[in-house]
Structure formats: C-alpha cells, structure tokens
TrEMBL record:
Transmembrane residue ranges: none
Residues annotated as domain HTH tetR-type: 14-74
DNA-binding region: 37-56
Keyword flag rRNA processing: no
Record bears the keyword Transcription regulation: yes
Record keywords, A-Z: DNA-binding, Transcription, Transcription regulation
Descriptive protein name: TetR/AcrR family transcriptional regulator
Entries under Gene3D superfamilies matching the protein: Tetracycline Repressor, domain 2
UniProt organism field: Microbacterium fluvii
Lineage: Bacteria, Bacillati, Actinomycetota, Actinomycetes, Micrococcales
C-alpha cells in the first residue's frame, strides 16, 4: 500500500510539474516574464502560491524546468557506481563517457521533446536571459560534479583531474545546449556526442566511435 501511495504522489507531482512548466512557458512566450504573476499561474493550475514554491524557486526556473529539489539522484548513483576502487593514481577508463552519460540523463529529465522544445524556444526568444540562467545552472552543476568525481575516483579534494574533467565535459554540454536551444537543429544528444568525439580527437589524437558513449 505504501508503494502504491508513493507512486501516486510521484505521478501527481510529475503532472503538477509539467502543468506549471507548460503554463509558465506559454505565458512567457505571450507576455514576457514581467507580464504575468505567480498568482496567475497558480490560479490556472488550481494550486496555492505556497505549492508553487514547493516545486520551483522562481518563475524563471519554472519556465526552464529546473526543480527546487534535485531530480538526478538515480543518474548520480549510477555514475558513482561506475568507478573503479583504485590507487588515486589512475582514473577509471570510462570516467569521461560516464560523465557524458550523466549529462545526457539530466537533459532527458527536462523532457524537452516535441511541443515542449518549441514552447521553451518560444519562451527564450521572448526572454533571452533565460538561456543565460540555464547556462548558469549548468555551471553550478559542474561544481557539484567535481565533488562527485572525487568521490567516485577516490581522489583527494582539490585534485586537478576532477576539476578538469567536470569543466571540460560541462563546457561541451553547455555548447551543445546553447546550439540546440538557439535554432531548430539536431537533438541535444547528437550535438553533445559530436563535441565529445571531437574533443577526444583533439586531445588524444584519436577518433572515438559514437558507440563509446552508449555503454549499456
């Protein structure tokens, strides 16, 4: 019974999240962020103002689908489980690929497919600063990823390799994100993987197959 209740709560939370995201994107595209209030959103969604702020920190974050609570716990757990217990000298051979997959899973959690992509692009066109907020949030996650890499690879705090890995893969993800949201083009995953492969070729002098990013 408890599992059923938890599943129902999760479904309702997911539905409310999607409703708030769609509403704020539509209103932003039509009026701009200053053209509507949180109270208007809550009225249309039939929720209280307090409930809105249990989901999102601001209108901006609602438009971008950035939840108040982290939603990548499962993806983070998979990333941490991929590390090799080791010597502090050698990194896991799959570190970069696993970190890239973590970024892709986070992106998929935003549910940017079909009409949702068009709605977000329309909102960003009306309010270009939203793209900057999305990029800032991605940079904030890079700092979190530095700690994840240190934990997974059993590195001392401040190990430069963790910092470089997080910021390199993060920079490639931001570039792909910006490209994807600024024009009607290929999927984020395709754009991101193209950059990962190009970076490997540039840094290692080796051409990595696309399948390298698709570990089962």
């Amino acid at each position: 019974m408890l599992d059923g209740a938890d599943t129902l709560r999760e479904r309702r939370r997911s539905e409310t999240t999607r409703t708030l995201v769609r509403l704020t994107r539509r209103l932003t595209a039509e009026r701009g962020l200053a053209g509507f209030t949180v109270e208007e959103v809550c009225s249309e969604a039939a929720i209280s103002r307090r409930t809105f702020f249990n989901y999102f920190a601001s209108k901006d974050d609602a438009v971008l689908g950035i939840p108040l609570d982290r939603s990548d716990a499962a993806a983070v757990a998979r990333f941490l489980a991929g590390g090799d217990a080791g010597t502090h000298r050698e990194l896991s051979p799959t570190l970069v690929a696993d970190l890239a997959l973590l970024h892709e899973e986070r992106w998929k959690a935003l549910d940017l497919t079909g009409d949702a992509v068009s709605e977000l692009r329309a909102a960003i066109e009306a309010e270009p600063r939203l793209l900057q907020r999305l990029l800032e949030q991605a940079r904030e996650r890079e700092l979190f990823d530095v700690r994840l890499i240190e934990q997974r690879e059993q590195l001392a705090e401040g190990d430069l390799r963790a910092d470089l890995a997080a910021h390199l893969v993060g920079a490639l993800a931001r570039a792909a994100m910006s490209d994807f949201l600024s024009r009607d083009t290929e999927s984020f995953s395709v754009l991101f993987e193209q950059r990962i492969i190009a970076a490997r070729e540039l840094l290692l002098g080796q051409v990595a197959p696309a399948a390298a990013l698709q570990r089962g």
